[in-house]
Design goal:
By secondary structure, this protein is of the alpha/beta class. It has one domain: 3-Layer(aba) Sandwich (Collagenase (Catalytic Domain)). 34% of the residues lie in helices and 17% in strands. It has a five-stranded mixed sheet with strand order 2-1-3-4-5, with helices on one face. α1 packs parallel to α4. The structure holds zinc ion (2 copies).
Length: 184
């Protein structure tokens, strides 16, 4: 397979997550993505962050703030100009977000896919985050879900699918990738 002419941009929020290197390595070998760029970490603007309001939410969230997905998307759209050859992966403390074409705001239906990493055991967190990220990148490349056990694109995308640190695609998805590249 020739190299994908995609450019993967990884934007970490708040921390320099140690698993980002593994995302780069695996997205290069799995998806043949030529160029991966890791942006310096940034914070979310303060106005986006809301304190939990209800007593129950306060109990669960403690000092953590929440953010409305709509607002977050709006902010990300300001940060990244749409480019069909760019794949944006946003990594937040409790979420990993992948975007399809929606970053342009061209479609009313957000082509956004989001997986919560909240509550994953520390021991498994890195591997789960790498797997989820590769799943999200798969979506950005146009891959859909499948039902095949052991495939990265299996739905639902559960963190525990990746605890072993095995990241691979089923034959059908692999063929789809090859097909996609030869079409261009
Ligand atoms: Zn998915
Ligand atoms: Zn598959």
């Amino acid at each position: 397979m020739r190299k994908m002419r995609f450019h993967l941009i990884i934007q970490p929020f708040y921390y320099n997550y140690d698993f980002i290197e593994d995302i780069c390595k695996n997205s290069k070998s799995l998806y043949k993505i030529m160029k991966v760029e890791i942006l310096p970490k940034i914070m979310l603007p303060k106005y986006l962050l809301l304190s939990p309001k209800s007593p129950l939410a306060k109990f669960f969230m403690r000092k953590r703030k929440m953010v409305y997905l709509e607002d977050l998307l709006g902010e990300l759209k300001k940060l990244f100009a749409y480019d069909s050859k760019k794949i944006i992966l946003a990594i937040l403390p409790h979420y990993i977000l992948g975007f399809g074409d929606d970053l342009a705001g061209l479609t009313p239906e957000p082509n956004l896919s989001i997986v919560s990493t909240y509550g994953i055991n520390e021991r498994h967190l890195s591997k789960a985050c790498v797997g989820i990220s590769l799943h999200e990148i798969g979506h950005s490349l146009g891959l859909r879900h499948c039902k095949i056990k052991g495939c990265l694109m299996k739905a639902p995308c559960k963190p525990k699918n990746f605890y072993k640190g095995v990241y691979q695609l089923c034959k059908e998805h692999e063929n789809k990738l090859i097909h996609m590249e030869t079409q261009k």
